[in-house]
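Bumping my old thread because nobody answered last time. Still need a sequence for this structure:
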């Protein structure tokens, strides 16, 4: 092999490694977004956190600094309490 062929081969290997790392990182970010989004959307059916709408139920009630997970100190409001329909 000549010197030019060795350099081309190294460049090809480096590009393929970069591609594999980039695709892997993109897949990881997509998986994280899906995981966080599904838990948030699942908790939307129970109501909305009045302090910060982007928090799920566990995180919303965690803001109350309670050691127990009860509804009294939680800022999350159910849809029946927050929407008045005649």
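Sorry it took so long. Here it is:
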């Amino acid at each position: 092999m000549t010197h030019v062929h060795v350099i081309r081969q190294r460049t090809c290997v480096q590009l393929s490694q970069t591609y594999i790392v980039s695709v892997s990182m993109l897949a990881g970010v997509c998986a994280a977004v899906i995981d966080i989004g599904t838990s948030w959307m699942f908790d939307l059916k129970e109501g909305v956190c009045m302090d910060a709408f982007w928090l799920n139920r566990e995180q919303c009630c965690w803001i109350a600094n309670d050691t127990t997970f009860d509804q009294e100190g939680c800022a999350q409001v159910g849809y029946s309490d927050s929407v008045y329909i005649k």
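The mean pLDDT is 77. Let me know if any region looks off to you.
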